[in-house]
Amino acid sequence: MAVQLNYLAPPDWQPPEADERYVIVLFKLQLAPGVGENMFAQAAASIAAESSTGTWTTVEHRPDSGMELADTYKAVAYDLSLTDHMFKVAYRVDLFEPGNISGFLAGPLGNVAGMK
Asked: What is the pTM of this model?
C-alpha cells in the first residue's frame, strides 16, 4: 500500500513547546498567474514536504520502509494566511545536526528555492 503523509496541520494548531522542540520558518508564497487561491494550502503542504521528509516517488509501507520515521520527522505547514500568502512551517529540531547552519539552510531554503 502506498503512503501519503499529511504535511498540513489542522486549523489553529500550534507546535507544542515551540521554542524547545521546533524551528519555525515563515514563508511567503507567490502563486503563479492563473493558479487559484484554493491551491494555497496544497502549495504550503508541498513546501513542508519537500523541505523535510517528503518525496516525489511512491513509498510502500513495509516494516523497513522508514515511513514511521518519516512521519515522526516531517515538517508541517500551519498558520496559513490567504490575505498575505504567508504561512509557517514547523521543523523538529532533531531533524537537523546541531551547529550545522549550512545543513539546516539546505532543507527549508535549498530544497524549495526552485519549486514551481
From this structure: 0.80
